[in-house]
Amino acid sequence: MKYTTTSFLLFITCMLQAQTKSTEWHFGVKTDLNFSTIKGNGMATGFTTGAQFGGFAEKPLSNKWSIQPELLFTQTNTKKASDFMTYYNTEGNVFAADNIKLGYISVPVMVKYNLNKYVSILAGPQYSIMLFDAESLMDDNKGIAFKRYEFSANAGLQFTIGSVALYGRYNQGITNINDIDNRYAWHSRHIQAGIAFRIK
Question: Is the pLDDT of residue 142 over 80?
Fold first, then answer.
């Protein structure tokens, strides 16, 4: 992850230095449906619907390239699997519900490449920090089952007409977010579809 981040920052620096004139920042808001799951032992395999919303800024670097940092609230909904107790014997606790609801502040930093006037490809890293969790995988006195932070990677496609954009994005978790123990790794996966409005 360290080398990926370093390479990404070097790429952005080179792109900025290659420009001969400055261009202004653009700003906007966005919202999407967030279909999420957590892959790992004891977790259900299906995708569950949540939501994501926030704002973005875009800095054009050339006619083709731009950088797009975002600040988002991400709702991650998933479920524990019926065989959860096979992997985690938590002293016979009876769990109240299968549903898991997590809330994050997410900061993607996307590189955007314009294929033409309407279609763009975006990709970049993301850092997320947990705001709240609603799950009953562990006793109250043992803390929560998930780590408070996560690194992930995004890739997606965007279709833009004027100040409105429709997009689809895939997010793959890189961090093992299992905080119960280190026997089994949990990695989040998200499929997102939404709409963005540029307001400046």
Answer: no
In the DSSP assignment, the letter for residue 80 is B
Beta strands 26-39 and 99-114 are unpaired
* CATH number of the domain enclosing 126: 2.40.160.20
Mean pLDDT of the chain: 85
Amino acid identity for residue 145 in this structure: A
Query: Can you spell out the DSSP letters for 36-74?
Result: EEEESTTB--S-EEEEEEEEEEEEE-SSSEEEEEEEEEE
Angle at 15 between CA 13 and CA 21, to 5 degrees: 110
Contact by Cβ (8 Å): 80, 97: no
- Residue 58: which domain range? 2-198
What's the number of domains the chain is made of? 1
Convert the pLDDT of each residue in 146-174 to its tens digit.
999 999 999 999 999 999 999 999 999 99
Contact 126, 145 (CB under 8 A): no
- pLDDT tens digits, residue range 21-52? 446 899 999 999 999 999 999 898 899 999 99
- Please tell me the distance from the alpha carbon of residue 120 to that of residue 113, in angstroms, as a whole number: 5
Confidence tier at 82 by pLDDT (50, 70, 90): confident
